Amino acid sequence: MKKRKGTVVDILSTLIAVIASAIIMVAFLDILKVVSYKEDIRQIARGYILKMEATGYLIPEDKSALIQKLTDMQLENISLNGTTDSAVGYGAEVVLNIKGSLPAEVLNVTTGNMLTFFFSEQAWNIEIKLASSAKY
After folding, report:
1. 3-state secondary structure at position 36
2. Where does 1-74 have alpha helices with state H?
3. Rounded to two decimals, what is the model's pTM?
4. Strands 118-133, 93-108: pairing kind
5. What is the pLDDT of residues 57-77, one digit of tens each?
6. Three-state secondary structure of 75-93
């Protein structure tokens, strides 16, 4: 049996598969980072809704502390519209509504050329709405 000479074409499909799987893995890790940030922001919001249950609304000191924590988490364009900001009676609904955008670097492959891809800055919109009842 005669040995056949190998060529680049023989391993080209494997090489393309390895590159494609690396691209998919990087994109997955970028999205996972955004999901992790959103969960961290949700945990911060949960702490503040518990405070709102005890006071009946989001007091100004807590509001400024919340905005500072969200800014520290790199959230931009923070809006608390729809949040209960005046005292309500016992048993009434208190709402914490957080909206903002989270800048993230994501893999961009929209150039049309399979071999040219790069990271671009995008903003992911984050919206968290929690509601409970006042218990003070």
Report:
1. helix
2. 8-55, 60-72
3. 0.75
4. antiparallel
5. 999 999 999 999 999 998 999
6. CEEEECCCCCCCCCCCCCE
**77-123 residue pLDDT tens:** 999 999 999 999 999 999 999 999 988 776 666 666 555 566 677 78
Nearest to residue 47, comparing CAs of 90, 98, 92, 86? 98
Cβ proximity of 47 and 78 under 8 Å = no
- What the block records as the tokens of 78 is 């923070």
- Look-up: residue for tokens 């890790």? 29
Q: What's at 14, amino acid-wise?
A: T
Provide the pairing of β-strand 118-133 with 76-79.
unpaired
Residue 126 dihedral angles phi and psi, to the nearest 5°? -115, 130
Please name the residues in contact with 98: beta carbons below 8 A apart, sequence gap of 6 or more.
41, 45, 66, 70, 78, 79, 80, 83, 126, 127, 128, 129
